Amino acid sequence: MLHTISTSPFQTQDLQRCLQYLRPDDEILLLQDAVSAGIEKNSWCEAIKKSGVKIYLLEADLAARGLADKVDNSMNVIDFKGFVLLTEQHESQLKWG
């Protein structure tokens, strides 16, 4: 399953709730303000890395927030084409926030 999150984990509990329901073969796509969770050396970045699932961040949202050069190197940054491919790979998806 692909979990998409668009709200900042510093303002909502969407990411926290998502992490509670993950299965080993799930993946997370962070969009809009949620990309802040993928910034190196913050508590949310460490939490999602410990989840053991693949994490993707949308490149355009990182750039719009001036965060492109602050992403943890374990995260996967994708463009819009990658976003489309990711959604095509997952039959089921769940949007958080």
From TrEMBL:
Pfam families: DsrH (PF04077)
Gene: dsrH
InterPro entries cross-referenced by the UniProt entry: DsrEFH-like, Sulphur_relay_TusB/DsrH
Protein name (Swiss-Prot/TrEMBL): Sulfurtransferase complex subunit TusB
Signal sequence range: none
